[in-house]
Design brief:
Elements (H helix, E strand, L loop, with lengths): L6 E5 L6 E5 L2 E9 L3 H14 L5 E8 L5 E5 L9 H10 L5 E8 L6 H18 L3 E5 L1 E9 L3 H10 L3 E6 L3 E9 L3 H9 L4 E6 L3
Antiparallel strand pairs: 1-7, 2-3, 3-6, 4-5, 4-6, 8-10, 8-11, 9-10
Helix pairs in contact: 2-3
């Protein structure tokens, strides 16, 4: 039986700028941690301003912790000579929630499709090698609802299982939001579900 996958790999901060040269063409590589397409657009706009004299701003991104979404863009280079080689490095390093951009300044000598594939792949690889890759857990969010008299029962379960409380409203009607590592989720859910006068509900991931 396959073990439940509840981790993913990503980067924590933008990489340093890297540079790959081939036949006078310059390829500047960047990797950014991202969580949505709005952030991706902002990084691309910033790089277009920074490298306004460049010829191409090719990129690939992947979002999601389990169900991945991705895009690869050749930005005017021959089809599949830039975006997919960059995306191939995202797959090779097994990272997600990431954007890699390679900015090209044309050096006057054509590289051919093979040369372009190698250049974009290498610049993407260098950007990833310049990044700190971390492994994070996939966490599920639950809301625990109960009346104030049940507080001690609930807090005991939270303390015994060392659970991560992200928000709480402790009044007559109490609510506590917790985050639980995916592979522990069923066990924790059952503990609260079996506790008299305590209701637990899974919240959708934002």
């Amino acid at each position: 039986m396959d073990e439940l996958k509840d981790t993913y790999r990503t980067i924590t901060k933008a990489s340093e700028e890297v540079l790959f040269k081939d036949k006078n063409s310059k390829f500047f590589g960047y990797a950014f941690p991202v969580i949505n397409e709005e952030e991706i657009k902002e990084h691309l706009e910033d790089l277009r301003k920074k490298h306004h004299a460049a010829r191409h701003w090719c990129y690939a991104w992947q979002l999601g912790k389990e169900d991945y979404r991705y895009r690869a863009n050749d930005d005017g280079e021959p089809s599949n000579s830039a975006g997919m080689p960059i995306y191939g490095q995202i797959q090779s390093f097994n990272v997600t929630n990431i954007l890699i951009v390679v900015v090209r300044y044309f050096g006057g000598v054509k590289l051919g499709v093979g040369g372009l594939i190698n250049a974009y792949k290498t610049a993407a690889q260098m950007a990833l090698e310049a990044s700190k890759i971390v492994t994070r857990t996939i966490d599920l969010t639950f809301e625990i609802s109960f009346d104030y008299p049940e507080m001690n029962k609930v807090m005991r379960v939270i303390k015994e299982n060392n659970l991560n409380v992200v928000d709480q409203i402790l009044e007559l009607d109490c609510k506590i939001i917790i985050m639980v590592r995916k592979k522990e989720a069923d066990r924790i859910y059952e503990k609260f579900d079996a506790t008299y006068k305590v209701k637990i509900t899974q919240l959708e991931d934002q």
